């Protein structure tokens, strides 16, 4: 076998990594609508001298028997959610007034309409489900503004939300994986390991893209009949 027909280990690792990414998308990130809605509750501790709240905690509630959003959130200031999830805020202090201004209006009010504002009092939660027109894009950070008053003490901060697991992003990355694989196969066409891995990647990319297409058709059918 000619020397230049033997790929170096870096090329093999690159192709193996591409195959791993394909499987991860097949399991986790083909489309966030494959998951049952998760409710994320951000509890804000509006205490101390301000102006920043003393702290945050993130609680999640999944539908019993469902498959909730795969993200695990520990940082309330950069919350990662799936489409169809619900986000709500509440204060630990029952005496606090809470206002949320969502710059991108990515959430709906109780009537199902996009809104920029939520207001909570008495320590009760305020928030809504992600709007159906909110794009899933792991590269976009949706900024919102928190304002809380406890007596005469104000608290405020500007955290962010990422709506991830989008089919659009998955499709782009799958195309990149496929292109990289084709380039490697063109460079080492006679190498049996590259040939086998290339076939595996091609098969799994097509399977995931078919899954994305079926989910898009299913969502469109649901919208047409509801």
Structural overview:
There is one protein chain. It is elongated and about 75 Å long. The longest helix has 33 residues, at 192-224. Helix 1 (9-29) runs antiparallel to helix 2 (167-187) and helix 1 packs parallel to helix 3. The protein has 2 domains: 3-29 and 167-218, no CATH class; 35-164, Immunoglobulin-like. The chain is 33% helix and 29% strand. It has helices at 9-29, 167-187, 192-224, and strands at 38-45, 55-62, 78-82, 86-91, 97-102, 107-108, 114-115, 117-121, 126-129, 142-150, 153-157, 160-164. The strands form 3 sheets. Strands 3, 5, 8, 10, 11 and 12 form a 6-stranded mixed beta sheet that branches. The protein is α+β, with helices and mostly antiparallel strands and 226 residues long.
Gross morphology is elongated
In this structure, how is the largest beta sheet organized?
Answer: 6 strands, mixed
Structural class: alpha+beta
Q: What's the tally of helices?
A: 3
CATH architecture label name of the largest domain: Sandwich
What is the compact description of this entry?
The chain has 226 residues and is α+β, with helices and mostly antiparallel strands.
Q: Which tags fit this structure?
A:
Immunoglobulin-like; 12 strands; disordered C terminus; six-stranded mixed β-sheet; alpha+beta; 226 residues; 2 domains; elongated
